[in-house]
Amino acid sequence: MMTLHGFAASNYYNLVKHALLYKELPFKENLIYPSSEALLAISPAGKVPILTTLDGLNISESSVICDFIEETYPEIALYPANASERATVRQIMKMAELYFELPSRRLIPYALSGTEAPESVKAEVRQVLARGITGLNRLCQFSPWVAGEQFTMADIYLYYVNTIVSAFGSSQLNWDVLAEVAGMKSWNDSMSQSAIAQKVEADRQANMPEFMQKVTAQIQAANAV
Ligand SMILES: N[C@@H](CCC(=O)N[C@@H](CS)C(=O)NCC(=O)O)C(=O)O
Q1: Candidate of 5, 10, 11, 12 to mutate for ligand 1, largest count of ligand atoms within 8 Å of Cβ
Q2: Do the beta carbons of residue 196 and residue 18 sit within 8 Å?
Q3: HSE on the CB side for 56, CA within 13 Å?
Q4: What are the pLDDT digits (tens) for 171-196?
Q5: Rounded to the nearest 5°, which phi and psi values hold at 82?
Q6: Residues with C-beta less than 6 Å from any ligand 1 atom
Q7: Model-level pTM?
Q8: Which of 30, 80, 108, 158 has a CA that sits 20 to 30 A from residue 214's CA?
Q9: Helix, strand, or coil here: 78?
Q10: pLDDT of 130-187, one tens digit each?
């Protein structure tokens, strides 16, 4: 059986988990946190998620894992058969990561340590998010799914990216970023209603206390140096 390594408080972990559940693939979960020797042994960059395949290969990077599971298990397809349509799906995923996820993540250390991000950092984050808003407004259809009639990996990817935008980007900047993309909010709400999203969210909430304990211990250790 495949193994998904990581922790449920991670949105990158959750998007892969959602895709595996959607494709009805059997897998087990291995709870593992960053900075552990066990993770470094299987993850080139020391990041989660990692998927161990049936051949024993350890794959990192969520979008690469998404591609692998689709190519290996094409049943219950999450990418369009048409190459041009697939390219649109991948553009949405890439833009979501580069211009929504990564800038929002810059605000996580400030949010977790309860400090205010410097205005210069906020300005840079706003600028990148604005690019994401423009790009996603141009590419997303929400009719009813992100890329049109077919539910795709872009729906799963963007939904979990948006959890970080809402929790850190929007809250730290006092800016409802998702409201800037026409159709995004109602699509996001309907995504959250699915049985899979609700299971993933329940697991996330169950993991949060332990995850926050680890974060607090790390902040205290850094402050003690
Ligand atoms: N580009 C990576 C990012 C994964 C990532 O940043 N994971 C976080 C957890 S949400 C992590 O492992 N952080 C540990 C660290 O930065 O040391 C992917 O798509 O999988």
Answers
A1: 12
A2: yes
A3: 0
A4: 889 999 999 999 999 999 999 999 99
A5: -80, 130
A6: 10-12, 34, 46-49, 61-63
A7: 0.96
A8: 158
A9: coil
A10: 999 999 999 999 999 999 999 999 999 999 999 999 999 888 899 999 999 999 999 9
Exposure b/e, 191-218, CB count within 10 A at least 16 = b:
beebeebeebeebbeebeeeeeeebeee
* Whole-angstrom distance, CA of residue 5 vs CA of residue 212: 18
CATH of domain 2-77+195-224: 3.40.30.10
Class of domain 83-192: mainly alpha
Nearest residue by C-alpha to atom 16 in ligand 1: 47
Q: Where are the domains of the chain?
A: 2-77+195-224, 83-192
- Closest atom of ligand 1 to CA, residue 9: 10
Pocket test for ligand 1, best of 11, 14, 15, 48 (most atoms within 8 A of CB): 48
The residue type of 73 is: Y
- Using DSSP's 3-state secondary structure scheme, residue 143 falls into coil
CA 99 to ligand 1 centroid distance, Å: 16
Which pair of structure tokens corresponds to residue 9?
Answer: 């408080």
